[in-house]
Design goal:
The structure holds 2 protein chains of 2 kinds.
Chain A lengths: L2 E5 L2 E3 L5 E8 L6 E8 L5 E7 L6 E3 L7 E6 L4 E6 L8 E11 L8 E4 L3 E5 L2
Parallel strand pairs in A: 2-11
Antiparallel strand pairs in A: 1-3, 3-8, 4-5, 4-9, 5-6, 7-8, 9-10, 9-11
Chain B lengths: L3 E4 L2 E4 L5 E7 L7 E6 L6 E5 L3 E2 L7 E6 L2 E6 L9 E6 L6 E2 L3 E5 L1
The chains are: A mainly beta, B mainly beta.
Amino acid sequence: QVQLVESGGGVVQPGTSLRLSCAASGFTFTSYALHWVRQAPGKGLEWVAVMWYDGRNTNYADSVKGRFTISRDNSKSTVYLQMNSLRAEDTAVYYCARDLYAIGGTVSYTLDYWGPGTLVTVSS
Amino acid sequence: DIQMTQSPSSLSASVGDRVTLTCRASQSISSHLNWYQQKPGKAPKLLIYSTSSLQSGVPSRFSGSGSATEFTLTIGSLQPEDFATYYCQQSYNTLITFGQGTRLEIK
């Protein structure tokens, strides 16, 4: 079955960096785009970034553009989110999610499987 | 960015009730509208995609409709496990956005 498991969260100070990982299993990793979505405590969902199945195309929310970088290692079936210059407003649970469409179609920006999330707290 | 607005923000209902949740987009998104269910402490779950397509494994009491800027999610007969928060999401453009959520509570 499809599984996504995030790791790497923790408590960090403003201005520092953190790298999240999402290990995938149960599907052909190289056929799917993967997204990061976050949820601040008690708040709604905010899409963060996507990396296409080809590993070349990416897209970011304006709130993280220039600070966050999404990447993937197909040999490890893992997607990463490198977060730099962290701010208090980046505090959230970060979810990794799979795109609905497999290779051959366009990226749907519909998220069919989600990991359980990892909490990032940015605080001094 | 396309703004998504859900109504109501919260709703109290009883087991067996039929409920309808609404989502409005700030511009036309054609049929590129998805619905998710989230329970406390859990990840969201995809229920409906492309306005009205039921995700595999989702009970048929869930249905979606609408087009352009106005969309609805209907739960035909509420079950105890349906009490949760529901989010709509537009996938019309590459900067996807979610509604603020509707919290469905037990009356």
